[in-house]
Amino acid sequence: MVTEIAKAKLNLALHVRARRPDGYHELETLFAFVADGDVVQVEPSEADSFTITGPFGALLSGEGDNLVTRAASAFRERFGGGAHAITLDKRLPVASGIGGGSADAAATLRALGVLHGVAVDEMFDIADRLGSDVPACLFGRSAIGRGRGEQLEPVAGLPGMPVLLVNPGVGVSTAEVFRRWDGVDRGPLPVDPRAGRNDLEPPARAIAPVIDDVLEALAASQGAGLVRMSGSGATCFALFEDVASRDAAVEALAGRGWWMLASYLT
Ligand SMILES: C[C@](O)(CO)[C@H](O)COP(=O)(O)OP(=O)(O)OC[C@H]1O[C@@H](n2ccc(N)nc2=O)[C@H](O)[C@@H]1O
Ligand SMILES: Nc1ncnc2c1ncn2[C@@H]1O[C@H](COP(=O)(O)OP(=O)(O)OP(=O)(O)O)[C@@H](O)[C@H]1O
C-alpha cells in the first residue's frame, strides 16, 4: 500500500495575460504547496476499486467521473501495472481553487509510479492531459507556471511559512470564472509576489460576493502578510509571520461557518 498526500495548491499570484483561440488562458502564476491535503492510498488488487471517504467525500461519490480514476486509467494505458484498490480521503473542499482534484490526480500518479517503478519525470505528459494544474501538483514544489500553467520553472519557496486557508463554502466553477475575466492584460508576474495579483479575484467575487468578506477578515487578522484568493476561488489564504498569529486568526474566525485549514507551506 502506498500513501500519498495530495497537498493543497496555492496560487500566491495569478496573472491572466490572454485568452487563447483554444479557449484556455495564458497565465503567469506562482505555485506554492501546503503541507496538508487529501490522502490517496493505492494498492495492487485483483480488481479495480475506488472508495471515497472524508468530510467532502459525499459530494463526489455520486459523480461517475473522478480525476483519481482518470489518472489511474491514463497510467495503465501508458505503463500497464494491472488493477488497483484506490482510496481517496477527501479533506479539501471541492471546486475551491486549491486544486483538490488536480492534487488527487497527481498523488495517484505518484503512488502508481512508486508501485511500478515509474519516475515522476516520465508522467508529466499524462498529467498535462488530465488538467492544467496537474503538472504543477505532480511537481509538488514552488514553481512559476506559464502557458496554461503546465510550463514549470522551479523557484525557491517559503518552506515552513505558516498559512491559513479559508473557504466560505461556495463552490465556484473554474471555467465560469475564466469566462467572466474582462480580457484586460494587467501585466506580468513581478519578482515579489506581494506586488502581484490574482486576476481571477474580480470575476470570482462577482459570482461569490462572500469572497470579499473572507479577504477582509483575513486582512484584518493580526500578523497576516500576503492575503489573496487562490486560483479561481473561492478559497483565500493568508501567510503569517508566526504560528501564534495564525492560530489566533483561526480562533477569531471560528463561528462563521467557514472551512479553515491551518498549516504551513512546504
Ligand atoms: C485557475 C487555476 O487553478 C490556476 O492554477 C488553473 O488555471 C485551473 O486549472 P484546472 O482546474 O486544472 O483547469 P482545467 O481542468 O485544465 O480547465 C478547466 C477550465 O478552466 C478554464 N481554463 C483553465 C486553465 C487555463 N489556463 N485557462 C482556462 O481558461 C477552461 O475553461 C477549462 O475548461
Ligand atoms: N478527486 C476530485 N476532487 C475534487 N473534484 C473532482 C475530483 N475528481 C473530479 N472532480 C471534479 O472536478 C471539479 C473541480 O474540482 P477541484 O476541487 O479540482 O477544483 P478547484 O479546487 O477549483 O481546482 P483548481 O484550483 O485546479 O481550479 C469538481 O467540481 C468535480 O466535479
What is the topology?
Layout: E1 2-19, E2 25-44, E3 49-53, H1 57-61, H2 67-79, E4 84-89, H3 100-116, H4 124-130, H5 134-139, E5 143-147, E6 151-154, E7 162-167, H6 174-179, H7 201-207, H8 210-219, E8 224-229, E9 236-240, H9 243-253, E10 259-264
Helix pairs in contact: 2-3
4-diphosphocytidyl-2-C-methyl-D-erythritol binds next to β1, β2 and α6.
Mean pLDDT: 97
Question: Could you state the order of secondary-structure elements as H and E?
Answer: EEEHHEHHHEEEHHHEEHE
CATH class of the largest domain: Alpha Beta
Q: State the end-to-end distance.
A: 24 Å
Radius of gyration: 18 Å
The residue ranges in which pLDDT falls below 50 over 5 or more consecutive positions are none
Instruction: Report the CATH architecture of the largest domain.
Output: 2-Layer Sandwich
Q: What global shape is seen? A: globular
Small ligands present? 4-diphosphocytidyl-2-C-methyl-D-erythritol, adenosine-5'-triphosphate
- The total count of strands amounts to 10
